[in-house]
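Field log, afternoon session.

UNIT: design team B
ACTIVITY: writing a sequence onto a fixed backbone
BACKBONE:
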């Protein structure tokens, strides 16, 4: 099976896993907007045991939102999101943006669409640049 690697922004937290993701959701709920600081979270789901921490597991900080099945796990040094075990323990959640290569699946859906950011669709339609606009 193909192995895929990922890391946080500063490189302190590093991991690898098999590229066997079963679900890929773009979550637009208001809590995911707050945990990412963006329009949505891009989360991959795999088996709970499908991770090997290469470095920095002790640098991972976890926050579980009381009363909701919402978790934020991040590097204590740079704040980047990192993999975490779901509250139920049935899935490992890996933020897609921290992977160093493409996952085996593409996004399957946009969940909690009724909560999507009011500016999201305008952003998708806006001009595209390869770097900063001139």
């Amino acid at each position: 099976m193909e192995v895929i690697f990922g890391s946080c922004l500063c490189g302190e937290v590093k991991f690898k896993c098999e590229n066997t993701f079963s679900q890929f959701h773009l979550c637009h709920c208001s809590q995911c907007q707050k945990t990412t600081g963006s329009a949505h979270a891009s989360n991959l789901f795999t088996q709970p045991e499908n991770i090997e921490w290469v470095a920095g597991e002790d640098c991972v900080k976890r926050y579980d939102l009381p009363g909701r099945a919402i978790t934020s796990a991040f590097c204590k040094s740079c704040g980047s999101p990192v993999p975490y075990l779901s509250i139920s323990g049935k899935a490992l959640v890996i933020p897609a943006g921290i992977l160093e290569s493409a996952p085996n699946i593409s996004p399957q859906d946009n969940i909690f669409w009724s909560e999507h950011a009011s500016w999201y669709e305008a952003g998708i339609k806006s001009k595209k640049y390869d770097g900063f606009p001139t």
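LOG NOTE: The mean pLDDT is 96.
NEXT ACTIVITY: expression trials, pending approval
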